[in-house]
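agent> fetching stored inputs for the phenylalanine docking request
agent> found them:
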Amino acid sequence: MRKFLSIVLAIVVFSTLVFSAGTIKIGVDFPMTGVVAAFGQMSWDGLKLAHEMYPTVLGKQIELVLMDNKSDKTEAANVASRLIEKEHVKAIIGCICSSNTLAAGPIAERAHVPMVSSASTNPLVTQGKKYVFRVCFTDPFQGKAAALFAYKQLGVKKVAVILEVSQDYSIGLANFFKKTFKKLGGKITGTYFYVTGDVDFTAQLNAALATHPDALYVPGYYPEISLMARQARQMGFKGYILCGDGAEAPELIKIGGKAVEGLYYTTHFDPKMAASEMTDKFVKAYTEKYHKNTDALGALAFDAYLLLRDAIQRAGSDDPQKIRDALENTKGFKGATGIITIHHGDPTKSAVIKKVENGKFVYAGFVNP
Ligand code: PHE
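agent> prediction call returned; pasting C-alpha cells
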C-alpha cells in the first residue's frame, strides 16, 4: 500500500512539474507567402536556427508559433491579434516590412504584449510605443550611410530617386537619403514613383534618365528592383544603381541577372563584421545547417530571438509586462549583427555596404554610426 501511495505521489509530483514547466509561446508574424515571401523564408531560417541552438529559457521549452502575414498590412495586424487572443503568446517576433509592423505594432501595444521586429527600419515603428522594439538600425541612419557612400566613395554627384509610394520604408528611406546627399553638395535630379506589383517602369525610367543622373537610388524591395534594373540597362543606363536593405534576396540576382551586376546596397550583416563572438557562432551553425551563405534577414531574426530570450531570462518570468521592462533595459547584448543597447526601442548599429559581383552578394565596406 505504501509503495502504491508513493508511486501515485510520484506520478502526481511528476505531472505537476511537467504541467507547470509547460512551454513559453512566442508568436512570429512573418511574410511567408505573397510579394516578399523570400524575406519571410530567410528570416524564418535564422529564427529556426536560434531556436534549435537555444530551445529553452527559465527551464521551460520555448514554442514558436509562426503565422503568415502574406506580405500584407491588414493580414499582419490580423496575425498579431490571432497570436495574442487565440494563442496567448507572451511576445511576438515580427514583422519584416515596416508598413506591416506599423499595422501590427498598435495591436501589440494595446494588448500590452511586447513585440520585437527583426528588420523594420522605419523610425515610426517604435516611436511613441512602449511595447515595440527592434534589433536593426533605423532609416535615418541607413539613408545617411547610403548618401555618404555614394558621394564620398563612389564619387556620385547627381542622383534620381525612384520610390514605392505605398511602403513607409521606401518613402522614409528616400527622404533620409536625399537629406544627407544634398547636405554633402550632391544634386537630386528628380523623384519618381511606382507601386508594388508594377512590372513596367519605362515611363519612370525615361523621365529619370532624361535628367542624366550618375546613379539611381531605389529604396524598394527586390521584386521591383530586379525588373527596374533590367529595364534601365536595356534603355542604356550605365550609371550606378543604389538600394537599401530591401534589395537583398536571392531572387534579386535570379530575376535581375546581368542587370544587377554592380548594384550597391546598404544592409545589416556580413560575417566580416565580427560584431561579437556570436557572429562566428551564427555563421558556423548557419552554414552547417543550410549549406548556403548567411544573409541579413536570417542574422537579424536570429538576434531578435536571442534578445527576446535574454530579456525573459533577465525578467525571471514570462509575464509580458516583465518581458517588456527587461527589453527596455537591454544593455550590451552580444548579437550576431552587433552589440545591442536599447534606447527608445532602438539599438545603434553599423551598416554594411554590399555589392552584386559575379552573381553573388559581396562585402564592399561598412559605415559606423
Ligand atoms: N528594412 C525593411 C523595411 O523596413 C525590411 C528589410 C530589412 C528587408 C532587411 C530586407 C532586409 O521595410
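agent> quick read of the result: The two ends are 72 Å apart (CA to CA).
agent> awaiting further instructions
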